[in-house]
Structures are given as C-alpha cells and as structure tokens.
Fold this protein.
Amino acid sequence: MSILRAGQQDPAAQGRRRIALGLLILVAAAPLRAQRHTDTNVAAWFSFNGDVALDDRWGLTFDASYRRAGPLSETQAIFARPGISYEISPNVRIAVGMSRSESYPYGKVPNPYAYPESRAWEQLVLSQTAGRIAIQHRYRLEQRWQGARGADTSDHAIDHWVRLSRARYQLRATVPLRGEAVAVHSSYLALSNEILIGFGRNVRYNVFDSNRAALTLGWRATESWRAELGYLNQLLLKSDGHQVEDNHTVTLTLGLTRAPRGRKAKRQAQPGS
C-alpha cells in the first residue's frame, strides 16, 4: 500500500477530476438546438495529420484539410496548420503554430462571400490511461484574423481584417478492438468531443462558437501510419446568434507519427480541424 506525503495528490484522483471537468465543459452545449433556428447539412472532410519528432523533446506538427458540403457538390473550406511542439514529459506536450484557411459559401443558409482567415495558436495536450483506454485532453487558444469586405463588394476584395479569439477543449478516448494497446495491423475506436468558445470585443452573439462530437474507426497500418474513417456532428452557431448549423459529416483522415530513433510511436498525430 502506497502512502502519499502531505501535499501530494493521488494521480488516479487527478485523472478522474480532469475527466469530470472535461465532461462538465462539454455538456454546456446541449440546450443549443432547442433555443435557435437550426438548418441541417451533410459534408465530407478529408484530412492529413502529421507529427514528426526532431529529437526526444522537439517535434513538428502539420495538419491539412479539404472540406466539401452537399456532401461533395460544394467546397466548404481548405486549410493548413503547421506548428512546433515540445514534450515536457511523456504525458504533457505544448505546441505553437500558425494556420491559413479559405472558407466558402455552402449549405442552406450560406455566408454571403468566401473569406480567408489567418490564425496563431497555442496548445497544451495532457495524456493519461484508464485500463485499455488512452485518454487525451487538448486545450487550444487561437488568435484569429478573418478577412471581410466593406459596403462595396462588387470587386470581391477583402478590405479589412476582423480580430477574434477562441478557446477550444477536446476530450478524446481511444480503445483498441483487440489486445491491450493499438498495435501494428490492428484496429481501434476513438470517441471525442470538442467545444469551441469565442471571446473578444468582436464576438457579440456567438460566444458559444461550435461543438464537434465524433466517432471514428481507425486502422494502424505500420508503426507510423494510421487511417481513420468516422462520423462527426458539428453544431455551429453563426455570428448573428440565431442561426444554427447541424452538420452531419463523414471524415477520412490519414495520420503520420514519427517518433525519435529508438522509441516507438506511442502518441498519435493530433486530430485536425
């Protein structure tokens, strides 16, 4: 029987509190559908996620996504997000980076025009296990600059940039379908939920930005490569604070994880979006 010294905390208890806090955050979005007008869309997202170690601590991350709506008849968005990560401990990683995207009008209530967006982002990822289940908590801050048009939109030119901020929390659980861990040539299930909260002086009516719940079937082909096919439900509140998109999305993701030499690739490439 282990005895904890004064001031020390039981790691298992810390993990339970972390999961409970995450679940409390995630249920905040539940009443959204009942309070506003909702339109339903279908979509398909095709993504690549990369996580390549430079040494035992430093690494490069990259994810890119091509998103269609209708489910394939309209372009929804295109983006790329590079970054650099640092491993503080086997269960704690931080990362920073930039991203660039282009969003297009789509769906039943489309935006009036296509617009670009640039972001800076900072991220903290905490990992833990509960038996065979690998649990990941991802906290991300984003500083966003969205391109906007003025009163005269005839030339389709972006004439100013709107500054926004957003906080994101994702809880993801991965369980192997056979064995104690996700081995090469084996499959797994992943369940995740992410809530996105906007803030700043230009966020007026949609402090709740969106919620993304996903169920994924994955296949680990090699030590480094994985493929995932899944379903994602995106509940998105538009900037007017009244219009809600309930987007049913098929996701197809290719993931690459390269560990330092002499170490197996235990961590997964970070899910994109």
